[in-house]
Specification:
Blueprint lengths: L5 H15 L2 E4 L9 E8 L2 E8 L3 E4 L11 E9 L2 E5 L3 E4 L4 E5 L4 E5 L3 E9 H7 L8 E2 L5 H14 L9 H15 L13 H13 L6 H8 L3 H9 L5 H19 L4 H7 L5 H12 L3 H11 L1
Antiparallel strand pairs: 1-4, 2-3, 3-10, 4-9, 5-8, 5-10, 6-7, 6-9, 8-11
Helix pairs in contact: 6-7
């Protein structure tokens, strides 16, 4: 279903509740056409939802394991678009082809950056808990580049393309779920927490994902659904500004390329957002204690 009116928006909410549970959707702009589609599939008792959405926010309330719609984990394949995820302990951004696991009993918010498409597979909680070790996170972005991750992604892509639609027998559905869970297990990070504040970490990830371009503070705050002032405070607590953080990331990426790439120094400076080579040289020397040329020579000697 594709919806464009307040009546259809209500229909979307009813359908998403029926398929995925208690989610509250906030439209991006009441004057713009809202787009939302859910295509549910039953693969031998394994429930799958192919979702398109352009809302500004989709929030899930904290649930109880006794409720039917909280007895699942959502295994997510981001198919198109970019989605920021905000949960109490975990904040991350999903790009096309990336994977994540959501705990349906936890409160979290999804922040689509325009129109996005996700595949969501509902894994039985008891089946997941029988396989995952206690040290594995239950709400996380998955490791993306291991053999298990590549196999898991490939299987989810087959599901998304309808290649497994003939599956109807519950034995096949259970076998498919077991395969997904066993491939999921090696891709989950451990429970050791990352340092720093969640909102600050998410802002850093959005910035780093966008480099060499970088969002303005206003754009960044809008993406995170916070005020610009609240965003500024996250960086000021560490004695720096958003602009200074962006410049530091550009300098560090420039340094990596100076050490590993034979490209001209000016080209590297331009690539990472420095339009004045003299300014780049001065700024680089203040940060690293050596000019770009001196830094490159020192790295060559080390190798």
């Amino acid at each position: 279903m594709t919806v464009h009116s307040s009546q259809d928006f209500d229909h979307w909410n009813h359908t998403v509740h029926a398929v995925c549970g208690r989610f509250v959707t906030q439209r991006a702009d009441v004057d713009d056409a809202f787009v939302g589609t859910i295509q549910p599939h039953d693969l031998g008792g394994l429930n799958v939802a192919d979702i398109h959405i352009n809302a500004s926010s989709i929030k899930r309330e904290r649930g109880s394991l006794s409720r039917a719609d909280d007895r699942f984990y959502f295994l997510i394949l981001q198919r198109q678009g970019v989605m920021a995820i905000n949960q109490t302990q975990e904040q991350f951004v999903l790009h096309p082809g990336e994977l994540a696991l959501f705990d349906s009993s936890q409160a979290f918010e999804m922040l689509p950056q325009g129109l996005v498409n996700q595949l969501s597979v509902h894994l039985n909680r008891d089946a997941v808990e029988r396989v995952l070790p206690p040290s594995a996170r239950r709400f996380a972005k998955l490791e993306q580049h291991s053999l298990s991750a590549n196999l898991l992604r490939g299987l989810l892509q087959q599901i998304a393309k309808g290649h497994l639609q003939p599956v109807a027998d519950t034995r096949d559905g259970n076998a498919l779920q077991d395969a997904l869970i066993n491939l999921l297990q090696p891709t989950l990070p451990s429970l050791s927490p990352e340092s720093g504040r969640p909102l600050r970490r998410l802002a850093e990830r959005l910035i780093n994902d966008a480099l060499p371009e970088a969002p303005s503070p206003t754009q960044l705050a809008a993406s995170l659904n916070v005020s610009v002032r609240q965003l500024y405070r996250q960086f000021e607590m560490d004695g720096e500004s958003i602009c200074r953080y962006i410049q530091r990331q550009r300098l560090e990426r420039s340094a990596r390329e100076l050490a590993d790439d034979a490209a001209p120094i000016t080209s590297i400076a331009y690539k990472w957002g420095f339009t004045d080579s003299a300014h780049f040289s001065r700024t680089f020397k203040r940060h690293f204690g050596a000019s770009p040329r001196e830094y490159r020579l020192s790295q060559l000697k080390d190798h």
